Amino acid sequence: MESINSTLLTEFILTGIPYPLRLRTFLFVFFLLIYTLTQLGNLLILITVWVDVQLHAHPMYIFLGVLSIIDMAISTIIVPRFMMSFTAVLTPISFGGCVTQLYFYHFLGSTQCFLYTLMAYDRYLAICRPLHYPVLMNAKLSTLLVAGAWVAGSIHGALQAILTFRLPYCGPNRVEYFFCDIPAVLKLACADTTVNKLVTLVDIGVVVASCFSLILLSYIRIIQAILRIQTADGRRRAFSTCGAHVTVVTVYYVPCAFVYLRPETNSPLGGAAALFPTAITPFVNPIIYTLRNQEVKLALKRMIGGCRT
């Protein structure tokens, strides 16, 4: 044990994902632009939801504001470090930094899963039970549900971080990935990782499968209700209110399932898929919600008009 402890790692090197060297500068600038627009877009959504009083009456936009916070945070803990892999020298990440990155990624990622489920349930109540909606989904309840999502996400992230870093890491220290994630880090452990892999598969599988099943069930009921609407304009408006959420859920869940619910997760294709929940989804969420959501567009116009006045 003493010989193992004497060689425990104090830092890791994130190698990033394979790319042609001639594209190094382009990729650095591209992801810098993606990161900047992600922060600005989500900040704009957050300010709009915060400032516009008319949106406060709709719990859906409370969820949307929280989603913007999560998108900004996930992008911040992943993308700047990822951009460093496009520089000439690979800068190490400390052991504590790796633990922190893994914890916050799974904390925020699982919270986002729960939040998407709450947003689907909110749309189900608004469309399928419109008369009871103000009672069943009020501001107090939506706040409690969001708080519950944060707590559950924190527990999930802590469980994954503790299980991963309770193992000894004594070399090598090159993580063949663009951030400290469970499958890539476990490959460097100097101990048996069978239990960790099983718990990770079951834990993440349960979270993803249960959230996705609840979302799917909600939208089955929503579609059934929409098809019963007599007018074409009514059906169009109902589908429009749900279209943005369906789009972002698809963009988020499909890559996550591809990354974590396969036997071999640390591959170039898996790394490319992991870019969606970490960099692409946070970037496209504000675009989707502003282009597909009429109330958000009107709120933006009111806010811009007020600023001009």
Automatic annotation (TrEMBL):
Q: Which UniProt keywords apply?
A: Cell membrane, G-protein coupled receptor, Membrane, Olfaction, Receptor, Sensory transduction, Transducer, Transmembrane, Transmembrane helix
Major place of residence:
membrane
- UniProt-recorded name of the protein: G-protein coupled receptors family 1 profile domain-containing protein
List where in the cell it is found. Answer: Cell membrane
For this protein, the record's Pfam families field holds:
7tm_4
Q: How does it sit in the membrane?
A: Multi-pass membrane protein
Organism from which the protein derives: Pipistrellus nathusii (Nathusius' pipistrelle)
Q: Which sequence ranges are marked TM in the entry? A: 26-49, 61-83, 103-121, 141-163, 204-227, 239-261, 273-291
Starting at the broadest rank, the lineage of the source organism is:
Eukaryota, Metazoa, Chordata, Craniata, Vertebrata
Its biological function?
Putative odorant or sperm cell receptor.
Stored SUPFAM superfamilies: Family A G protein-coupled receptor-like
Q: In the UniProt record, does the keyword Oxidoreductase occur?
A: no
- The chain positions of domain G-protein coupled receptors family 1 profile read 41-289
The record's listing under PANTHER family reads: OLFACTORY RECEPTOR (PTHR26453)
